[in-house]
Structures are given as structure tokens and as C-alpha cells.
Amino acid sequence: MLLAWLIVQAAVGHTVATCRVPDDPQRREWRLERRDAGVSSPEWRVLFSGDMLDKPVVELRLPGAAPVVAPGEVRLSYANANGGRSIEWHAVNGAATLDLHVSHGLEVNVEADLDPAVDQMNTEGAIAVVCTVSGSARSSQSSELVVGAGAAWSVKLFQSAGNRRYAVQTVSWGRELTRAVGPGLLRGRFAWAAEVTPIFVQTSPAGVYGFGIAPVVWRWNFEPRPRWSAFGELSMGGLWTSDPIPEETTRANFTAHWGGGVRVFESAGRSLVLGYRFQHISNGNNLGSNPGVNSHVVLAGVAVTRIQ
């Protein structure tokens, strides 16, 4: 069963960018697609459609292509040895450019089953197109730096103390450890991050200051949409404060949270981050009682992503 699932996944193509000519009477469309032929050797191809064709689509394979794919942007510079196929493609969401050349007469000598209709996908130089970039076929893992700040309010739950207000400033760095896996809407990538809380300020019921660190942040990055992406996460760490939280407990506490959020892409490699987490602070039963603090936390910040 697992082998069959892997075969199906390998056969599925993932569209990275779709580009069309505005107000084109021939309704031409170029799609850059990635097919997972193997863990280390993805296959890239261009799929072309238009009213001039006598078939739904024409395919042009791109052996050895290595597009640079980032949230909201794709860059492809490709040329083969005999000059029979070359592409300069810079796709972003909105206005973009495409310059594609292919010669069936030259390329049929190296790819005997090449469809003669590939000549129809020529752009005859650089042309203006309008594109949609999904980013969902990104083959490489990414690393991410997130700087954020937020406000929290506690709730009374079991032994935990309510009516507390505090603010946090956070800095995290993480790296994706897997390629995209999973079915449908659950498809995504697993990342491990570490987070530092250099500023923790409780304002109510009393002023308390602290510092925290979470070496374990397990994050699931769902496959991105053209303009945004979502994530979910779990975390474990510690918090050290100037006074006990809650009162009459300890100044050193364990922390944990679960939550999630969205990234709204501003440009290639940069996004706004909005997140929510439910955070637990407690002494881990090191005292006779373990009242703890359970809080809703809302955060906003900026993320810088680098494709490895």
C-alpha cells in the first residue's frame, strides 16, 4: 500500500506557475510543472494550451532544469546544449515576462517522440504575461527567521489562575526537515524551530519581567497558496521571571503551547505573520500544588524565508 501511494505521488504533477497573455484571442497559457520522479531528481516541464492546437495540451520536458521557487515568485533560466530549447521566465503574481524558444526540428534529434506542436508555444521573444504563482511545487527545504510581538490574557482552567495580562516579544529560527508530504489539504512540510522570548512583561495583577526559551518548536507548514500560507505548531520550553508566576510558586517554570497562524506574502522571501497560541505556564508539579497559567496569545510579526 505504501509503495502504491509513493508511485501515485511521483506521477502527480504540481503546477508552480500559470501564465497567460492578457486579451489574447488565441487564449494561450503556459504552465510550469514539477513532477516528483524521485527524492533527489524532480522533473520539470512546460505545459502549453491554446486555441491554435488540435489537442488539449502540449508538453515540453526540461531535463536538468533548476527553477528558483520562492513564495510568490519563480525564476527559470534554461538552455540546452544544442540551442533547441531555451527559456527566460520570471513569474510573479500579476504582470510578468516570458521568453520561450523551442525548435522541433532541432530537438527531435535528441527526443524522438517530441510533439511537433511544441513549436506553437514559442513566444518569439520576451512577452508580457499575467501569472499566478502557487509555490506549491517547491522542491527544496527552507529556513525561516520570525520576529514577533503579542499580547496575552489568561483564563481560569482547572487550578490555573485567571485575570492575568502580559506581553511578549519573540524571535524564532527554524528549518524544514522534509519535502512536501501528505494528501490533499494536509500536504505540507515538517520544520523544527527554536524560539527565544527576550521580553516577557506581566502587567496585571502585578508587574513581573522575564525571559524564556523554547528549544522544541515542531511546526507543520501547509503548502502555500499564491498570496498566503498557513502553519500549525507545538512547543516546549522554559520561562524565568523576576517574581513567581503565579504567586507563591516558583520563578522558573515550564512552558508549552499549541497554535497556528498565517503568513501573508509581501515579496519573495518576506511575509507578515499573524498567529494564535494557547500557552501553558507551570512548575511541572515541583511544589505541592501546580496552579499554572493558561493563556490566549495573539501575535504579529515579520518572517524572512530563505530557500536552501
Descriptive account of the structure:
The protein has 308 residues and is mainly beta. It folds into 2 domains: 2-133, no CATH class; 142-307, Porin (Beta Barrel). Helices cover 5% and strands 57% of the residues. The strands form 2 sheets. It has a 9-stranded antiparallel β-sheet. It has an 8-stranded antiparallel barrel with strand order 10-11-12-13-14-15-16-17. A hairpin with a 5-residue loop joins strand 13 (208-222) and strand 14. The two termini are 32 Å apart.
Brief rundown of the structure:
With 308 residues, the chain is mostly beta strands.
Largest β-sheet summary: 9 strands, antiparallel
Name of the CATH architecture of the largest domain = Beta Barrel
Considering DSSP H and I runs of 4 or more, what fraction of the residues is helical?
Answer: under 10%
Rg, rounded, reads 25 Å
Question: In which order are the strands of the major sheet placed?
Answer: 4-3-2-1-9-8-7-6-5
Structural class: mainly beta
Strand content: over 45%
Determine the N-to-C terminus distance.
32 Å
Q: Give the total of domains.
A: 2
Topology summary:
Layout: H1 2-11, E1 13-20, E2 29-35, E3 43-49, E4 58-61, E5 68-70, E6 73-79, E7 85-92, E8 94-102, H2 104-107, E9 127-133, E10 142-155, E11 165-176, E12 188-204, E13 208-222, E14 228-241, E15 252-267, E16 270-282, E17 293-307
Antiparallel strand pairs: 1-2, 1-9, 2-3, 3-4, 5-6, 6-7, 7-8, 8-9, 10-11, 10-17, 11-12, 12-13, 13-14, 14-15, 15-16, 16-17
